[in-house]
Specification:
The complex is a heterodimer of chains A (165) and B (272). Chain A is built from 6 helices and no strands. With 165 residues, chain A is mainly α. Chain A has one domain. The radius of gyration of chain A is 16 Å and the shape is globular. The two termini of chain A are 12 Å apart. Chain B has 272 residues and is of the alpha+beta class. Chain B has 3 helices and 12 strands; from the N terminus they run αααββββββββββββ. In chain B, the strands form 2 sheets. In chain B, strands 1-2-5-4-3-12 form a 6-stranded antiparallel β-barrel. In chain B, strands 6-7-8-11-10-9 form a 6-stranded antiparallel β-barrel. The longest helix of chain B is centred in the first third of the chain and has 36 residues. Classes of the chains: A mainly alpha (165), B alpha+beta (272). Chains A and B meet through helix 1, helix 3, helix 4, helix 5 and helix 6 of A and helix 1, helix 2 and strand 1 of B.
Chain lengths: 165, 272
């Protein structure tokens, strides 16, 4: 039960950080989805039975807070979670060579899914330059900060494991 | 195998859900207000703390420019008082003329001021959370404005908090007209800092710098509220419509307080 509470608190903390703090700083205007590293971490390093309910909870919270169509984040997080479960069958994700690319790949996939859904449901709307600009800045941020966030989550996880196990 | 089938079924259901909620956002309003009710008090506390700290900075450490600013503001105040007197005169003459023409009295709106406590965490949608909800009389669909112009409309309400869809979101649409030439069209957001003015006929005269205001026809925004100014016009050789870009007057990056119009239940008519 403890891990669920800890990860739920992390979720609420990150949403508040993004919505009330980072959005007020111009530098972070196009920062990527801050819950994404946690979703990827759950997919890569936590048991399937523990990660799945949490990513549904994360998706539900994000879908409720954002103004986009309901279900988008649940779908994206589920697909990324499944993709990460598949990835660990073939590659050694703890490798220092791969860590910098995990969040980058996650942000890229998330943007691609959004792009596909935009084309599917809003055919009359052109994909504006603003979308491409936003996506490229998100990828840049993911490349710079992604590995550090993964290391931080790993550290928090190991501390809690030491305390409660 | 079972997991693969369950996963595929889930993806299928999610796409259906996205499609339905995209067309009918009301369908998921009930369940989506629950997380807002849980998260918004924390957002309120964090935003309040940030405002408090930045307020201390502004009020106690930034006194150097205050005297100069005070002088400038006094000058502006005297100009504003003069302007207000003129406006009162115009209002009185307007009332007389309306009475004379037996016009229907314009809608009287009650307003509620609210503070923005959170912005959208998604980079693709543009909404904000405000610290007023059903208990303050806010209902879904209420227009939200700031002194500079239209900000958006309430799309989701919980007891003490509401979600506002900004006019720059790609799901937003406002029936609008150009103040000078009265050309009509629909203002749509692009999820960037600009909007586009759709369905403006090619024959209509629109120039860069023209003021765009709400037409009042959509039944959401009162007539005559400022939206933005025309920042670009492309009139192609073929096609019925012209492509018009509109830059909103509101700076959505610096949105802190807003005014919510609580729509009255009925019109008030003046007796002849």
């Amino acid at each position: 039960m403890i891990p669920y509470i800890v990860y739920s608190c992390i979720c609420i903390f990150l949403i508040i950080l993004k919505t009330s703090v980072l959005t007020n700083i111009a530098l972070f205007n196009n920062f990527y989805d801050i819950l994404l590293p946690v979703v990827l971490y759950l997919g890569l390093f936590r048991p399937f039975s523990q990660g799945l309910p949490l990513i549904f909870f994360y998706g539900f919270c994000m879908d409720s807070i954002t103004g986009g169509p309901f279900g988008f984040y649940v779908l994206v997080y589920f697909l990324l979670f499944i993709a990460m479960r598949g990835t660990i069958q073939f590659v050694h994700v703890r490798s220092f060579l791969l860590k910098p690319f995990i969040v980058f790949a996650g942000v890229l996939i998330e943007n691609l899914i959004f792009f596909v859904l935009l084309i599917l449901f809003h055919r009359n709307q052109m994909v504006s330059g603003a979308f491409l600009h936003s996506a490229s800045i998100q990828l840049l941020w993911a490349a710079i900060t992604g590995p550090f966030l993964l290391i931080m989550i790993d550290y928090i996880q190991s501390r809690f494991s030491n305390w409660f196990e | 195998m079972v997991f693969a089938i369950a996963g595929a079924f889930f993806v299928f259901c999610s796409v259906i859900l996205i499609s339905v909620s995209d067309k009918h956002p009301d369908a998921t309003e009930g369940i989506s207000s629950v997380p807002i009710s849980i998260i918004s008090p924390f957002q309120d506390a964090v935003t309040g703390s940030i405002t408090f700290i930045s307020g201390i900075w502004r009020h106690y450490f930034d006194l150097v420019s205050t005297a100069k600013e005070n002088d400038a503001l006094k000058k502006m105040l005297s100009q504003a008082v003069e302007k207000k007197n003129q406006c009162v005169e115009i209002e009185l003459s307007n009332q007389r003329l309306r009475k004379f023409l037996d016009f229907q009295k314009t809608r009287m709106f009650q307003t509620v001021s609210a503070e923005v406590i959170g912005k959208d965490p998604s980079p693709w949608s543009k909404t904000v959370i405000i610290d007023k909800g059903q208990s303050d009389g806010i209902r879904k669909g209420c227009p939200v404005v700031v002194p500079e112009g239209i900000t958006g409309q309430v799309v989701s309400v919980s007891t003490y908090y509401s979600k506002v869809l900004l006019i720059i979101d790609r799901n937003s649409a406002i029936d609008a007209l150009v103040q000078r030439s009265r050309a009509r069209g629909i203002i749509r957001g692009m999820s960037s800092e600009e909007c586009t003015f759709h369905y403006v006929l090619r024959k209509n005269d629109i120039r860069v710098g023209d003021e765009v205001v709400s037409s009042g026809i959509d039944g959401v925004y009162p007539k005559g509220l400022r939206i933005g100014y025309v920042s670009g016009v492309i009139r192609r050789n073929s096609g019925m419509f012209q492509e018009v870009d509109v830059t909103p007057h509101v700076d959505f990056e610096k949105l802190e307080e807003v005014i919510v119009f609580i729509t009255p239940a009925e019109y008030e008519f003046e007796m002849p």
